Model the fold of this input.
Amino acid sequence: MTRLHPINLLVTGGCGFIGSNFVRYWMRQHPESKVVVYDKLTYAGRKENLADLWDSPNLSLVVGDIGDMDAVRRACQDNAIDLIVNFAAETHVDQSILGPLVFTDTNVRGTHVLLEVARELSIRLHHISTDEVYGHIRDDHQSVETDELAPRSPYAASKAAADQLVQAYAITYGIPVTITRGANNVGPYQYPEKAVPLFSTNAILNEPIPVYGDGLQMRDYAHVHDHCTGIETVLLRGIIGEVYNVGTGREMTNLEMVDIVLDTLDKDHALVKHVTDRPGHDRRYSMNVDKLRALGWQPQYDPKQAVAEAARWYAENRTWWEPIRSGEFREYYEKQYAERLAGAGQ
Ligand code: NAD
Ligand code: DAU
Done:
């Protein structure tokens, strides 16, 4: 694997699901690199996601908001940062339907602030975008990087705006940027509001599995490890200014995903309850990942293995999620599911 020169990274959102997996992976692969995690520690950001690494002299934490320009600038200057990797975001579609404004604050304005600091200090910025920016994809197509963006939820719209700001800064100011658009990730340390950890932990607790609508929506459930190697590939060999899709290129329905979770955990399929659908629910995401493959990357997991392995992780790591599920999560769960489950069908 090619190496960058010893490099100082600012990883925003590094205490979240993908960010913490990326930090762990990157530090193992690049022991010469220094990593500063810059994170607001929202409900989704947990310092304990990196508990095994905080003793390392190569890792430090700055608690801050990406919308705070002075704090971001200071973190970059104090640590001689030469690359920002931006994972920081509000990330859950359902939360964006319940309370959308913070999505604009963090995902749009926050990314804009990072771009301003990157411009001022001549720092490369890698931005983590999502397959949701392409919107619903018809059955005979897979999204390619040049497709028009057509987001349909407040979350997706905020991510599309950020993605376009990053591209606009590259064109207007010539700052060095790259973008990856990830598929639906699964794996360790994913906050249990998201479907695979929610369904896994509910199944372990013998609680109902709330499937939205008919459950025939299609997603590319990709293992977070493959997202991390995809980002690393783009950091090391990607062309500056370019966008790369990262996924497996293969989708399954949500009902197939649920079957894998329940079979892996050896649980009764009668736990499945069909509940009122998510408003504006995109039916299908599907990405073509040939451009990233052309850089020599390939995924290690197929989606079935990824979902099964994730479900097993939640069975083996109850001490990670039990405290989360007993806290403020309960309030969200009630708001999101109590009425839906009361009116649920099999
Ligand atoms: P997550 O919700 O688990 O973590 C988000 C992290 O960002 C948390 O640590 C949180 O504290 C931090 N954060 C939130 N607002 C912040 C702010 N204003 N300033 C600083 N830090 C802030 O999210 P995730 O699932 O790990 O997603 C990470 C990134 O990847 C996001 O940009 C998301 O849009 C993108 N993405 C996620 C997926 C997925 O399936 N999870 C797929 C494709 C792309
Ligand atoms: O596709 C990439 C996106 O994947 C990322 O950009 C987001 O950050 C990430 O959160 C995820 O998007 P969603 O927020 O839609 O993921 P979620 O796990 O909530 O939903 C996955 C699918 O499962 C979706 O079709 C909705 C469905 N679902 C979800 C929940 C929470 C249900 O059927 N029932 C549920 O209770």
